[in-house]
Amino acid sequence: MDKKVRLIGAVAATVALMAALAACAPQANNPVTDEAAMNAVPAQDQFGVVVAEQWQGLYPNQYRTWLDNEANSPESGKDNYLETYPQLATMYKGYGFAKGYDEAASHSYTLRSIAETPRVNEKTLANCITCKTPQYTAMVQAEGDSAYAKPFGEVLALMTEPVSCYNCHGNDPTQLEVTNGFYLNSLGNSVATTPVESQVCGQCHNEYYFNPQTKATTNPYVGTEAMTAEAILAYYDGIGFMDWEHPDTGAPLLKAQHPEFETIYGGAGSRMAAAGFSCADCHMATETDEAGTKYASHYLVSPLESEAQQEKCAMCHDDIAAEVRQWQEGVTRREHEIAAQIELYIQQLAAAKDSLDAATLEQAQQIHRHAQFYWDYVMVENSEGAHNPEACHQNLDKAEELLAEGFALLA
Predict the structure, then answer these.
(1) Rounded to whole angstroms, how far apart are CA atoms 51 and 68?
(2) Which of 44, 98, 354, 396 is deepest in the core (most CB within 10 A)?
């Protein structure tokens, strides 16, 4: 039977599965029931955050598995994207990402990673700390947009807690909470139609920009229907936004961030989203402790790294590991091919720039802007195409079509 048919036919079974998975969702923390322990209110830090260590007595399984994320460290074989995609030196020329761009480590290292990146300088603002620590999230909640415009180094020096409980639960581990207000606003009416287990992940795993006036972290859309690369590009074009001007072509370029949520839920959405699965269902395995209590592991892994997670996939997939490898290899191969085309286009546009009339130059620069954004939108989405291979190929198709138009224009 065709897998798409099987997947659609499995929706009813998925609903039943989701009910069974309710016990594994992040909000089902299976806390201890000792009355004295339950009445003990963990202390908050100076920002009003109960840090993870304070919860370990009440939620030992969740705390222990949260600590397991330390295994996914910057030293654990991460890609240096500037080496993996050597064309980035040309594509990102004139922008901070040309100085350093490594594959992300786990949530345990968010503060270390932002402190060590070569992309910051004396002009960097605190908005770059968004999603790196719950303490900054709480600061923004308390102070509003003014917190975004503070000096980066001054604020970072105050932060001590990497991404942890508060980011997804506030100070109530029995509930899920989208603590980033900017993102909740950007969901609009889609709040009612997307799983909260995905919203709490999506509030950091999304495409954003810094408002030029307020410096606030901002999403370029409202609602999931506007969360496509094409709609986001139109939004940026409409407000005249750019991240930097390429020094060789003069094109006003955009740097995509990490649009995992948009890739899964944006527009028509992915097959996984259509089937009703959330981020937590795929990345937080159900485990059982020695007392027989089931809980959601807070060790965040690829489903391919968990036998228990792959057993869920078997409902719709004969060999999920082989399928994902096929998706990722196909997307990655095209990323490399198109990156080479973009580099060549930049070189040709730079060489021809001074001989083009104003209208032709503007058109050629817009092609550079758009083609590179479509490519970047796919490459920086951290699943390498696995979250939504169809959408990734569609965006790469658009990049190729634009480049063909651009090469013809310059011929």
Answers:
(1) 16
(2) 396
